[in-house]
Amino acid sequence: MKMGCTLNLGNQNTKMKRTPHIAAILATLLALTKTVAAQTAPSPKIFEPAQVQAVYRVLLDRDSLLLESILDVIKQKKIEDGYVSISAGSVHTCTYHYVTSPAPKPVNAFKTVKGAFEILNAGGIIAAGEPHIHITLSSPEGAFGGHLENGCRVLYLAEITILQFRGPALTRANNPNGVALLKPK
User: Fold this and answer.
1) Does domain 51-184 bear CATH number 3.30.1330.80?
2) Which end of the chain has fewer surrounding CB within 10 Å, N or C?
């Protein structure tokens, strides 16, 4: 099967094959993209390894406060470094915030939703005893979410796993734009 197209140059019709030209253009674009990405993308900051010291499985019942309960467990168990995962649950009231601009300094909007919402997932790192948790909720209209805030109330249940790490601890410090970034403690 021959692939080709007709290129109209005034009164002349010129037939040219697409395949070699498209392949050459794509290869050039791919090489340029890799070069630009390598020049502009910051490298990841990889912290020293930690080990799981303890795993706490937590069940929250109807009307429990989601973030406040997680904070209570972190305080009770003296967890300075770890990870929180909310794998199943629902809420009937939830406050979260999300960024509204790609500007270097974040601009946040806060939103409180009321109704029946499934927790699709939520999780975040605990550093210096403070969790940074993002949550995704769903309703018949779609999925949405952001940074979990105080005041979210469980509808039927919430199943939470909290990992406590042993090893080099992390903390957070604001960068020049006010974004709290992880760093070794």
Assistant:
1) yes
2) N
